[in-house]
Amino acid sequence: MSSNGNSGRALPRAGRALPWALVTPALGWTLLFFVLPFIAMGFSSLTAHEGGGFTLSNYSQFFTNPSYWQAMVNSLQVTAIVTVVSVLLAYPFAWILAEQVPERWQRLALMLAVLPFWTSYVVRSYSWLLVLAQNGVINRALTGSGLMTEPLQLANTRFATVTGFVHFFVMLLTLTIFANLKQLSPSYRKAAADLGAGPVRTFLHVVLPLTLPGIMVGAFLTFVLCIGDYITPQILGGNNELLMPQLVMMQIGRRGDFPLASALSIILMAVVTIAYLACARWLKIERA
Amino acid sequence: MRWFVRTASWAYALAVYGFIFLPVVVLVLFSLQATSFPIPPFTGPSLRWYDAVLSDVRLTSALVNSLMVAVLSSATAVTLGFLSAWGFARFVLPGSGLLRGLITLPLTVSYLIIGMGLLVLFNWAGVPKSLLAAGIGHVVINLPLCFAIIYSQMGDHQINIERAARDLGAPEWKVLLLITVPVLAPAIFAGFFLSMTFSWDEFVISFLLTRFETTLPVEIWNLLRSGLNPKTNAVGSLVFAVSIVLVVLFELTLLRRRKP
User: Which residues does residue A47 pair with via DSSP β-bridges, in sequence order?
Assistant: First the structure.
């Protein structure tokens, strides 16, 4: 029996060694292959590309070179557009799935909505290229039906990048917002109706505020995954404008400049950390 | 009013479904294209591009590599995740909130940065690029996920069963293997299959950390350099099929838990 009155959670017979033996492998892995690499990256970012020696030039380059700075501006703009558009598209969709679709079909409807989630990530961006290319599906449809005489330049633009991203994040946000809407007890809505609120007021003053945590979690995930992604902008955006991950990969791929790539990665991570701190109170993992 | 809401809802839902399915339908449709360009008009149907994929040694060996890395890294991630989840849920450890935070921290960092960090570290330590290096990276991204899934399912009600086993004289390792693992099997499988889908589809880490032998997403990336090509459509459709199988397994393991 538990003797130390710790709500039955401490196990006297186990001794002190066992719990540490259980958590050490996972902690060790995280320290060795996540924290240590991060420290290595930090050191690397402070060395010169040629010849070593400590320098802050990798960071100062970011702030003085307009094209590097521009990549961050582009990244933040694209991420902001993607996050807002995805939430605006996904919320009504999740609401329709949760409220308008009959209960017994909901699971199927939701599974269908997230099915393309599971295509290969690289291939999904490529598929959008098939749709948006000069002689792709949309342009063929437009010129074929006589609506347009010249094909539109859709691929290799910011529009293509945003479309590819929104496609992915609408699915993600639909999942999180749907889960949130289903968790709402119907009695809240009944109470609001009893007190004389119409459907619009009920939605604005009861449903929306209560689902805000879900929206915030989804929006944060969108932000993190979007700003750090290399594939979608590289395949769909072409090289007309660079986003931060493309810039990082360029330093490694073309120039082998690990120090600069490290510095840019750390700056990118700092931005994500600021976003995390801004919505930290919504992002708690709790035990059921 | 009700009629209007219903009609508008249907129209909106159909539009979103159309948007979501458009690229996938185009992908699969033009993988069946008979001619060499995956663009309209559709000239199919033909299975020649699937044939081309399955007889391409680079693609098939990359597929085997991908499956191998996915299985081994997911097994490692789920084992470490389970042990630590059990440790944190059952014992009082000093600073456990902070340590749990440390384990889940990689969730908030983009794959690109995790891959970059490992690349710099391995470069310094003289570890060559390999599937093993990529697999280590996959454990880093999937461990927090497995931990979070399993930890969230460790309800207090299971403590009593474990305590009963101890009172009947079972040593800790027996409690773990004969009680906790079977009780939490759905969460463990869910973590495993979800990790599999993420590892199987992961690109950036594998791209940075492998050289000669590599995974399927990286091979597909190389294929993309040749422009629009029905072979890419075919291999993409195959990857989609495998992912769907994994997701169905994931769903089944979770569903089994929901109706005890």
Answer: A54
Distance CA A51, CA A54 (A): 10
Q: Min CA distance, A66 vs chain B (Å)?
A: 23
Nearest chain B Cα distance for residue A98, angstroms:
11
Neighbours of B219 (CB within 10 A): 22
Q: Quick check: A22 and B87 CB within 8 A? A: yes
Query: Which residue in the set B81, B89, B236 is minimally distant from A123, CB to CB?
Result: B236
| Long-range contact set of residues B1-5: C-beta below 8 Å, sequence gap at least 24 | B5/A100
- DSSP-assigned letter for residue B126: T
Look at A271 and B258; give whichever has higher pLDDT.
A271
Q: Which domains does chain B have, with CATH numbers?
A: 56-256 (1.10.3720.10)
Q: Do B143 and A19 touch (CB under 8 A)?
A: no
Residues A158 and B126: their CA atoms lie apart, in Å, by 39
Question: Is B127 in the A-facing interface, judged by CB distances under 8 Å?
Answer: no
The closest of B251, B241, B235, B239 to B194, measured between CA atoms, is B251
End-to-end Cα separation, chain A, in angstroms: 24
CA distances from A71 to A222, A246, B230 (A): 19, 9, 33
Strands (E) located in chain A: none
The pTM of the whole model exceeds 0.90? no
User: Is A229's CB within 8 Å of B112's CB?
Assistant: yes
b/e A131-142 (16+ beta carbons within 10 angstroms → b): bbbeebbbbbeb
Nearest to B123 among A122, A258, A276 (CB): A258
The residue of chain A with its CA nearest to that of B194 is A118
Residues of B in contact with A122 (CB under 8 A): 203, 217, 220-221, 224
Distance CA A117, CA A174 (A): 11
Q: A153-194 pLDDT, tens per residue?
A: 777 889 999 999 999 999 989 988 888 888 777 777 778 777
CA distance A57 to A67: 16
Question: B117 at the A interface (CB within 8 A)?
Answer: yes
Of A30, A126, A137, nearest to B106 by CB-CB distance is: A30
**Rounded to 10 degrees, what is the CA torsion of B122, B123, B126, B130?**
60
- Measured in angstroms, the CA of B174 and the nearest CA of chain A are apart by 13
**pLDDT 10s digits, B51-88:** 888 888 888 899 999 999 999 999 999 999 999 998 88
Residue B149's CB is within 10 A of a number of other CB atoms, namely 23
Task: Give CA–CA dist B56/B51, Å, rounded.
Answer: 9
Q: How far apart are CA A248 and CA A262, in angstroms?
A: 8
Q: Using a CB-CB distance cutoff of 8 angstroms, which residues of chain A are in contact with residue B233?
A: 130
B19 part of contact set with chain A, CB < 8 Å: yes
User: A47 and A53 in contact (C-beta within 8 Å)?
Assistant: yes
- CA–CA min distance B122, chain A (Å): 8
